[in-house]
Design brief:
InterPro entries: ATPase_V1-cplx_f_g_su, ATPase_V1-cplx_fsu_euk, ATPase_V1_fsu_sf. By secondary structure, the chain is an alpha/beta fold. The protein is about 40% helix and about 15% strand. About 20% of the residues are buried.
């Protein structure tokens, strides 16, 4: 059993309806003691400030170890993601059905590439 599983850590999802539904069907859905869910469905009517508020709320919850976010949604709050440098919760950008993953846009991957020289990658 992993450390996160033993300590009751959660996965959070910020994404489109299909992404959230898939993860919820996989069993990740939880409500905390204040009845706040660990997922947010983003659609055309969702404002950037709502996404930022949700991300910041997930970031401040001790029980959340990983935040998964659709990359197209992450692009809308890129400045917030770039400012997040804490190791936990880890933030992973994932593709959505309508938007493929682009490694050049991923903040974490860009930061990781900056830690290595070209010789390290050979």
């Amino acid at each position: 059993m992993t450390h996160s599983a033993k300590s009751g850590k959660l996965l959070a999802v910020i994404g489109d309806e299909d992404t959230c539904t898939g993860f919820l069907l996989g069993g990740i859905g939880e409500l905390n003691k204040h009845r706040h869910p660990n997922f947010m469905v983003v659609d055309k009517s969702t404002s950037v400030s709502e996404i930022e508020d949700c991300f910041n709320a997930f970031k401040s919850r001790d029980e959340i170890a990983i935040i998964l976010i659709n990359q197209n949604v992450a692009e809308e709050i890129r400045h917030v993601l770039d400012a997040h440098t804490d190791p936990t919760p880890a933030v992973l950008e994932i593709p959505s059905k309508d938007h493929p993953y682009d490694a050049n846009k991923d903040s974490i991957l860009r930061r990781a590439k900056g830690m290595f020289s070209a010789e390290d990658l050979r």
